[in-house]
């Protein structure tokens, strides 16, 4: 075998993108040139979604038009509501999201229409409807009827209303909005790359997004935010963190919410999300969870020099917001739909079929035996 194999495509530059830039050396992440921390401090998720798709932050008038379009498309048809209600109550919510995305593709007569205008319309519709899908799924698992979306509330507040039938304090809504900004985009991560691979075959946007949902589900990627919370719950209290880590490392387990393929000295999004998590701790008086979070982080980083990624603070922050643990990754989808679809449009605008090579290490060529008895 003479080919050099880059397992996991580690370090391989596959294509260019103008959507976001990750700089490993400086731990920085920019969306369309703006540092993500500054976007989180100064913008709403709606503004960032607009930026990701349109390359520029919206003016006041552009934002109002964009918000009106989003608010006008939040409702989903009765057949989709029924489809969600009919799925097994104990299936993973990411399967519900994936099924719903496929359904929306199946009923869209323009599903196969290519081009930026058609795709932007589909992207905006998915962005508007995913929160409704996730909220209905949450409520049915609790034996509750859906709460209809309302045009009177912003994106994040409307989502809380649809899930819990009430809108929490502005501080809580803002923490959620910040998490959505931080989760919106991250260059050629596994799920985004999946959407680009599917798009490269000239398949439609819904097929690409459904594939992205599948890739995001895994705990090495988006599923880590759920796995972090499950892990913290299993550990229990700060004084048990060290012994739990001893045991996990002895079993060679990966510690969820730590490590990153690109950032080796810390994830640029963590300080902002950690602050949002601390705000949630203050709002809910959850100092025990913060103590556990800090003790676990200090112990693991001290031993391994492997730093937390965004899923470490976001998992417990969503927990304190009241979301069920298995809904955390669907919430990630609600944010990443912006980045995925921007990449889908970019791929389509300058497409080359993504089809790498493999180095064969199986049997030598052989003949099919006539007698196989
Ligand atoms: N726990 C224990 N050991 C780890 C971890 C971890 N979380 N992360 C890396 N390592 C070790 C790894 O075992 C390897 O050790 P050795 O050299 O002895 O074999 C070394 O560090 C290098 O790691 P790697 O596996 O080469 O790193 P990678 O770039 O392939 O993996 C990762 C990146 C994210 C898959 C990995 O760090 C991981 O599994 N983390 C836990 C899951 C997680 O939090 N995923 C979320 C990722 S970021 C946000 C997102 O996508 O949602």
TrEMBL record:
Task: Please tell me whether the keyword Iron is annotated for this protein.
Answer: no
What does the entry give for GO biological process?
carbohydrate metabolic process; tricarboxylic acid cycle
- What reaction(s) does this enzyme catalyze? oxaloacetate + acetyl-CoA + H2O = citrate + CoA + H(+)
Query: Taxonomic lineage per UniProt?
Result: Bacteria, Bacillati, Actinomycetota, Actinomycetes, Micrococcales
Gene Ontology cellular-component annotations:
cytosol
Q: To which species is this protein native?
A: Brevibacterium aurantiacum
Protein's name according to its UniProt entry = Citrate synthase
Is rRNA-binding given among the entry's keywords? no
Similarity annotation: Belongs to the citrate synthase family.
This protein's pathway? Carbohydrate metabolism; tricarboxylic acid cycle
The UniProt GO MF terms for this protein read:
citrate synthase activity
Which Pfam families does this one have?
Citrate_synt
For this UniProt record, the keywords arranged alphabetically read as follows: Acyltransferase, Transferase, Tricarboxylic acid cycle
Active-site residue list? 260, 311
């Amino acid at each position: 075998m003479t080919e050099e194999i880059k397992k996991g495509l580690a370090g391989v530059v596959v294509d260019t993108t103008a959507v976001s830039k990750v700089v490993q050396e400086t731990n920085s992440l920019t969306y369309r040139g703006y540092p993500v921390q500054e976007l989180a401090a100064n913008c709403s998720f709606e503004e960032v979604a607009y930026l990701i798709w349109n390359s520029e932050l919206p003016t006041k008038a552009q934002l109002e038009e964009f918000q009106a379009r989003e608010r006008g498309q939040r409702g989903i048809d009765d057949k989709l509501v029924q489809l969600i209600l009919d799925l097994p109550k104990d299936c993973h919510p990411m399967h519900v999201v994936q099924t719903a995305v496929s359904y929306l593709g199946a009923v869209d007569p323009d599903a196969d229409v290519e081009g930026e205008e058609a795709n932007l319309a589909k992207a905006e519709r998915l962005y508007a409807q995913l929160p409704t899908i996730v909220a209905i799924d949450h409520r049915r698992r609790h034996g509750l009827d859906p709460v209809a979306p309302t045009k009177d509330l912003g994106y994040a507040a409307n989502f809380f209303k649809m899930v819990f039938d009430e809108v929490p304090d502005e501080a809580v809504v803002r923490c959620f909005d910040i998490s959505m900004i931080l989760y919106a985009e991250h260059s050629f991560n596994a799920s985004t790359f999946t959407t680009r691979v599917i798009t490269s075959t000239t398949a439609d946007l819904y097929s690409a997004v459904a594939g992205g949902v599948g890739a995001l589900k895994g705990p090495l990627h988006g599923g880590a935010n759920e796995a972090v919370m499950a892990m913290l719950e299993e550990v229990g209290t700060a004084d048990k963190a060290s012994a739990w880590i001893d045991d996990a490392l002895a079993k060679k387990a990966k510690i969820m919410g730590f490590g990153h393929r690109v950032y080796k000295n810390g994830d640029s999004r963590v300080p902002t999300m950690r602050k949002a998590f601390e705000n949630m701790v203050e709002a809910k008086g959850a100092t025990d969870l913060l103590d556990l979070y800090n003790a676990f982080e200090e112990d693991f980083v001290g031993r391994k020099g492997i730093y937390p990624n965004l899923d470490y603070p976001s998992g417990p922050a969503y927990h304190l917001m009241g979301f069920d643990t298995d809904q955390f990754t669907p919430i990630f989808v609600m944010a990443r739909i912006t980045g995925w679809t921007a990449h889908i449009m970019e791929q389509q605008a300058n497409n080359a079929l993504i089809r790498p090579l493999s180095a064969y290490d199986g049997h030598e060529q052989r003949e099919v035996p006539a007698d196989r008895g």
